[in-house]
Each structure stands twice: as C-alpha cells, then as structure tokens.
Amino acid sequence: MGRSKHNKREATADTAGDKKNKRQKREDYRTALRENGSTELPRKKHYRQRAHANPFSDHKLIYPPHPELMNWSSMYPHYVAEEGPADQAQTDAEVLPDRDSEVLKPKKLTQDVEVADIGCGFGGLLVALAPALPDKLILGLEIRVSVTQFVEDRIKALRAQNEEQKLYRNIAVLRANTMKFMPNFFTKGQLSKIFICFPDPHFKARKHKQRIVSTTLNSEYAYVLQPSGIVYTITDVPDLHEWMVGHFEAHPSFERVSEEEQEADPCVTIMRTETEEGKKVERNQGKKYVALYRRLEDPPHE
Amino acid sequence: MSLPYHILKVCGGVVFAARAGSIYSFNSDLEYISAWEYPVKQQQQTKGQEASATEQQKESSAADGPPTKRRKVESSQEAAPSNGSGDAEGAGAPETKPKKKGKSYTTPTDRAFVQGLYSTTDGRHLVAITGSDKTIRVFEHDGAGNLRLLSERQMPKRPCDIAITPDNRTILSADKFGDVYGLPLIESEDGQWSKETSAAQQKSRSATPAASQAYKPQANEFTVHTVRNRKALENQKLVLEQRAKEEKAEGPQFEHILLLGHVSMLTAIAVGTSPKNNKPYIITADRDEHIRITRSIPQTHVIEGFCLGHDEFISTICIPPLRPDLLISGGGDDELYVWNWVSNQRLSKTDLLKEAQKLAPEMAKLAVTRIFATRPKQINKKGDENNKSDDHTLVFVICERIPAIFCFQLKDSETTLQHAQTIPLPNGNNPLDVEYLHSSPSPRLLVAVDPNSITTSSTENTTEPAATTTTPSLRVFSLEQGQWHPTEQVIKGPEPSTGSSPEESNPITVQELQKILYTTESLRKTATDFE
What we know:
Chain A: The active site is at 200. By secondary structure, chain A is an alpha/beta fold.
C-alpha cells in the first residue's frame, strides 16, 4: 500500500521522490552486497531504522513453535553436526512423539547457543565477544528488521575477511521479539549468559511495561538461564539502572554479583567499551551503570 | 428481543446461567429458583450522583462515617441480616470493603456481559467476571441456588479468565495485558491474606520498586532567589504532590498481588495438581501459542516449563477430572491437543476441522471456544466391577459459529481423544456453552444456544434490532443408547421484571450482540504489520 502511494507522488513531489530513491538505494546496496559475496563491511547509513519498535504488536515474525524445531544450522554453518538419519529419527521421537512426519527436523549443532545478547543493535558487543568467548555460540537478538540485516551482513563480511583464522563463526543474529518468544528459541537452562546492553529506557511511566526488565519477564530470563548463569546489564540512564537493579533485586531467582567479581569479568570491560551505545556515551563523557545478576538454584518446591 | 443465556455453570445440584450481566439459578429439574441482577439502574444514576458522591466521600472519609456510595449501602444492608449464618471463613468481611473511586462504573453504553462463572470446589462461592467493567464479583451460595454478593473488585485490566486455587482461598485472575494477579476469595479485614501470601512469596513481588517516585526538584528555597523562579519551584512541588496522589489512586485499593506475566494477551488459566509431587501449578495460555507451567503460590517466580507446539492462538484449556496430568488445549488450530503438562510433552492431536467439515465442507478454519470435560457417573445395571475397564472421560467441544457440539471420549488407559458423536443443534443455532447434569436415570446435557444465529444474513442487517424469537435459549439433550438427542423440555426462565432489565431500556442490536458473544476468532493474527 505504502509503495503505490510513493509511486504516485514521485512524479509530482520531489521530496517523496527522494525518499523513494533513498529507500531504493538502500535496497540496491544491500542486494548488491549480498549477491557479490563482497567481503566489504556493510555501512550503517544503508540500514537506518527508527530506534523503537513496539514489542506488543504482532510483527510479522518468524519463530519456531518449539526450540527443537529451530533451524540453527544456517546461522552457525561451521557447527553443524554430522548425523545419520537414524539418529535423527530417534531424537525426534524423544521430543515430540507424534510430530508430523512431514515436518523435517532441522539439523543439529555440535553445541547449543549459550550466550544471548538481547537487543544487540548493530552488533558491536557480538563482534567483540566472538574472540573473547571462542568456544561458545553467541546469538544476538534484535527486533528491528534493517538493523538485524546490517548485523547479518556484518557477520558475513567478518567471516569472509577472517576465513583463515576461522574467526566470527560462533556469532549470529536473529530477528526476534524476546519479550514474547524467548522460550520458543531456548530450552530451560540453555543459556549461561544474557546481555542486556543499553536497552530502550522508555521514560514515560505508561511505557514502563515495555521495558525489557520487569518482575514478570525476569522469571523468563531465569527460565532460560542455567543456575549460576549471569545477566549483564548496562545503561547510561540512572533511572533505568535503578529500575533494573530494583527489579532483579526483588526477584527471588537472582542475586547481585559482587563489584569485585563484576570488575574481574572480562565481559564487563567489553560491554563497557565495545557496544555502539557504550562508545557514544564515552564520546559524550557520560556515565555508565553496570549491574550483574546471578541466577540462583530454584528453591525446593514447598 | 430476548438475550440468550451464554454461560452455564453447574454447582452442586444447581445450574447457574448468565444472561447479559445477570445470573439466574435453576434446580436440577431446571426450574427457575432465583436471580442476581446486574445493577443497571444504579449504573445510570451513578453518573449524575458521581460528582456529589465523591465530594461527600472526601469529607466523610476522614470521619470514618457510614459509606456514602449507593453501592456500598446496598451491599451492607444486604449483608447485615444474613450475617448470622457464619459459614463463610471470613465472616463479617463484606462490610469493610475497600473504598473505590467514583469511576468504578463505565459508561452506560458498555454492555455488561458475564464473561465467566466459576465455583469453588466446596460449592459455597460463585465467582463471576464481567468484561466491560473489568470486575470480579464473589457471591456466597447457600447451596440452594440463592446468591449473595460479597464483593466486587475492579481489576486494572480486563480479566480474561480466572481460576481458584485448590484451597479455595485465592482467585487467580489472568488479564488481557498478560498478567496474573492473585486476590483473596474472601477479603479479610486486617489484610491477613496479603501478609501470608507476600510473606510466603519471600519478598513481596507486587511491591515492585517505583522509579518515578524518586524524582525531586534539584533546586530548593535556598538556591532560588528571584520571585519568578520561586513561584516556578512552588508550582513544581504542587504538581509533584498532585501526581503522587494520582499515583496512589491508580492501583486497586484491595489486596492483590502480581504473580506472573506473559507479554501477550492471556486467554486461559487453570490450576493443576501434579500427580508426581502432589503440588499445585498454575497453567496459563496466551494468544502467542504458549502454554506456561508455573509453580503455584508462593513460588510463582519459578517457571517449570512450556507446552509448545500450537501454531495458532490458544483460547481454552482443560484438565480432565481424574486425569490430573493431562491437559486438553484448543484455539485457532485445526486440532485439539492433548498434553502431559507435567512433563511438557504433547501426547496426541485430534483433528477437529475434519469433523466440522462433515457438517460444512467449505469450512477452512475454526476457533475453539469451549472444552468441557466431565466424568460420567457409572450407573450400573448388573455389577459395578465389569464397567471399570472402560471408564472414560467425556469431552465436549464448542467452536465459534458452528451449530454443533463435538463429543469425544477419553479412555482411562489412553491419551487420545476418540470422536464419539457430533451433536447438531436444532434450527442451526450456535452453541455458546455446555454443561453436564449428572441426573438419574440418565445424564442430560444442557446447552446454551444463541437463538439469533438462525440466519447468517442477519449479521448484515446492522441497525435492525433482533426479532423476538420463540426459540429457547437453553436446550436439554438426553442420552439414549449412547447417543445424545435433543429433548423438547422447555425451561421457564424468570418473568422479565418491567423496566429493570437492560435490554428493555436500551435494546441491543444483533450485530452488537454478535460482537460480544463471538470474540474468539478475532484472536487470530493477521500479518499486516511489517516493520
């Protein structure tokens, strides 16, 4: 619908024409980048998108109905397990005994994704974590389409540039609404680290429900985290920091990691310096607030 | 026009049927007993009185005098004479209901329709939720069909479904915003429920830290020197004070606690007891295809697992009696799913669309609105030993706008639903709810039907009020040789009391009624939004 509107306007209004051209340019750029198999890093200006997305609306999202049906193999092609079809059928039967036979079970990986960067943005943290956690599979999750595409192209280019050193094979990005669909991707206790870096502050009180940290969402983070797994939070907004601290503090499944331990964690340094937002705050000489929370064992069921 | 009964609930030997906002009771022979009518007169009057009432309340609230609101007066009058019965746990509780602000009632154009009727396991209390005013009402039931309103609590968001914990102390309200609140069935005077519950929840999880409270103006009287700036500062303080007051008024004034939440509209909630450890769990289903299993109070922060696999929204879930580890779920998918919710495993799928297409071959999708499971009482002719081997649960399923009831059998040794019968409804009327009457000599099925659904074209005639139909809105089916057949039993409802019923003062159009009664299909997602 939007497109035909643009076409009509193009002839008369210059501004509309410019807009269309810009969009067209972006699309051309992206397809060219993909088709040429270019190893050049993508440029952000071709992937701009407004900063907010409504987590409550029904985006046209793709997500598996069940974590077992998630196809990770195209995202981490170097970690695909060589499996005989017999094995596959067996594991299939264990998970969902009556699963429709026509649904093909996706290929398994040699290891599971263990680190998630929720709201990875343009992927600064992902790229920095890749060499720091070489034996872990790391996944960035982002709700905005263009931004996800940028990170996808960025990872692709980085993999190509570092073909020999075999770098950046352990990172991937996925478009997802984690507030709704986290349990569709990860099983109980699958993750060891969750990063929540410079999340949307949602200043207005009536938008607080949209914040990525809340009493009820924290239960979901606890669900996908294994005991002693860690949630990393960082923000430059003091109010939001207090909010996140308050909510994790009040949640019986989490305890705060001591400052000593926090500062000794190499991931904290990376989180401070390597995220796009982190760099921006640095340039403006703003303050950064960090808080780490450890997932506790579930109490015995009373 | 006559509004149909649309919700049924059997409680002991009494049948409760909801019509619009009111609840009517019938005995097991389906003779009318009594009614609780939705306070419609009040609703219209409150509007005019509101301003003065709130004014008065402001003055009198400090003196702790008698309540000035009509509603409160009425309920305490009602409560006073029967107070001696003392069978309820929290005797004397209803008089000291928490104060509510004047906005409790929404505009009169909003139709009050009971959205769900629930009873405690002991049958002493009935709980009703109404959509338009977001209110949960608790009634005391004397066991003979008479209801006495104990409390009305308006939730912050519209409750979609509720469940009552096995100890009959707590109502679990699942709302449109995805949150589940716990609130005491009987409100206690001293907040005992809150104390116990939140203490048990380790740290009070409802007391989420409020971020906005922290704001204070950076300047003070000593740092501000000009007259203008001082005025500005005073103003700022005033605004803040007002805001603080408003914030206080925002949350409900009664005891309640946030237990868990999805970032999705909740559609169904149930409490299951695991046969493994005999512990209760809260099972919640949402529009985004999730069924979540959470530990019950006091450990609702622990999510035990998810039953995932639905491709479309889930609208209703059901734990069959005597099969406590099973869960039947349905919604926008073509099939009914049977799960072992304790182990999060899907056990079977049953094609419901296939059965529906036998009635209407052109049907492409369906929306399940009710799954109702019951245990038929074995009435043995010879000995009772023989029948044990084929004990089964009966499962009745209603789909939106399909004029039939689907009947399935779930044998005790099995985990698959076996289609037993599709019961077409006379005149092509749509079923709205179904209940099972364990009556002798043979059981009966009570179905609430929508008599206005005879012609499909009636939806197009928007302005025309529905014609008065003689079709009864309650239908009885009897079991003959293993098959359900409609009976001609006529159920006499209450005589319409002139002037007091909402339908007379403000007639409802067919379209309006359809909008209220058929809401399930609208849960289906339409992929229009791209970025």
